[in-house]
Amino acid sequence: xxKRRIAILGSTGSIGRQALDVISQHRDLFEVELLTANNSSDxxxxxxxxxxANNVVICNEDRYREVAxxxxxxxxxxxxxxxxxxxxxxxxxxxxxxxxxxGFSGLESTIAAVKAGKTIALANKETLVAAGQIVxxxxxxxxxxxxxxxxxxxxxxQCLMGSAGAEIEKIHLTASGGPFRKWSRKxxxxxxxxxxxxxxNWNMGSKITIDSATMMxxxxxxxxxxxxxGTPGEKINVVVHPESIIHSMVEYADGSVIAQMGHxxxxxxxxxxxxxxxxxPLNNRKLDFAALGQISFAAxxxxxxPALTLAYEALRKGGNMPCIMNAANEAAVAAFLQDRxxxxxxxxxxxxxxxxxxxxxxxxxxxxxxxxxxxxxSARTIIDKISR
Length: 388
Fold this sequence. Notes:
Elements: E1 4-9, H1 14-25, E2 30-37, H2 41-50, E3 55-58, H3 64-71, E4 77-80, H4 82-88, E5 96-99, H5 107-115, E6 119-122, H6 126-142, E7 146-148, H7 151-161, E8 168-175, H8 185-189, H9 193-196, H10 206-214, H11 216-229, E9 236-240, E10 246-252, E11 257-261, H12 266-275, H13 289-292, H14 307-317, H15 321-337, H16 343-356, H17 365-386
Parallel strand pairs: 1-2, 1-5, 2-3, 3-4, 5-6, 6-7, 8-9
Antiparallel strand pairs: 8-10, 10-11
Helix pairs in contact: 1-12, 2-3, 4-5, 5-6, 6-11, 6-15, 10-15, 11-14, 15-16, 15-17, 16-17
């Protein structure tokens, strides 16, 4: 395997930091070409110096001078704004683009990398949720390879490698159940931000952690799986697996099920996307099956976690409906994190937006961006009315 040059979009977030840890363990095989961040200028500066990045983009243009002055003595080129990110991902000096920006903001740069024919290590699930058909069509047109980084989708990808060409009977997406798995609906309705952010297994950013608590994260993954693997929604099942050891499973026509297992550690999926099809050593915790004892499974409670129902509805409706759902969820999660609305107000806001925002059966990319803006604005109007 030759040396691979990596661009990390969102290097200061949870996925970006873990990706840099993977690179630090294999300096002979990976090098950093581009790092980007939105606001975390101090950490971006430290990362750029440590990994000798060739280019850096700070998306918040107000912080450009701070970053540029700090990195000028290190001969690291500094740019500002999302347009710079989109321009730089097409560089001939980049082999793999890790798209780990949070939310809809990752779509524009991912499309730019796809159009440049890059290998995409996809950690931004909202890209395929909002514009799955468009992105996958572009990837086919420009021969861009999309490798999943979400632990569940990486697991499915690896399971499919074990039975290449066989028709999928069912995909089983595993879910931890989040912090409220054993709570009653009444208790969940009174949940605080601190309680929702207390995930039992995974260490993630705040937005993803809240999505896990509502199980919207799993809803987004259902839609992402539909596009990554060409599998209709009725063949994508969610099963609660509190131990988070089995990351997902694929069932075939003969009843055989192939599962991918490991401790909750995103670095495994990140490294596999970077090194595919090879597997490299990783300094991580290895499974001890005797110590595990037993693992368990249960069906999700759709009444306590209505986000799953909303995601299946959005997928069945198609068009721009998943984009509406995603935008409304982003706005509502932000409001919950600001202590403006209650926990179930998140999914109530999403439901109302799915009913009220204009539906487009066959959106183009301009329609997707317009839909995102309209749904976000609609959600904020709803939130303003119910805000505490």
